[in-house]
Design a protein that fits this description.
Layout (H helix, E strand, L loop, with lengths): L3 E4 L2 E3 L5 E7 L4 E7 L6 E6 L6 E3 L7 E6 L4 E6 L8 E8 L13 E2 L3 E5 L2
Parallel strand pairs: 2-11
Antiparallel strand pairs: 1-3, 3-8, 4-5, 4-9, 5-6, 7-8, 9-10, 9-11
Length: about 120
Amino acid sequence: QVQVVESGGGLVQPGDSLRLSCAHSGKYTMAWFRQAPGKEREFVAAINRSGRKYHYADSVKGRFRISRDDRKNMVYLQMNSLKSEDTAVYYCAASNRWDTSSTIGDYDYWGRGTQVTVSP
């Protein structure tokens, strides 16, 4: 059974940095999505199976960085210059596709999420 488990969320101040981690159990294209209260889940970042292709939402481009360590079966989301609008539950997702995708339906396995709150 495929497992996807997020960790690393917390309460930070605007301008701070935070790194989310995601443990998974195979070789997948991986992504991060987020869902703020009262809003739909939205794409944040993705990295393909080879780790050579990345895809970011415009709202986080230049501030967030996705990476993977396949020796450890881990994916990371480094979040810098955090803003209050980044507050959300962040979900890690795994896809059997080779290429990145920003579409929720293209991801086969999901974690339960980790809360990130950015507040003064």
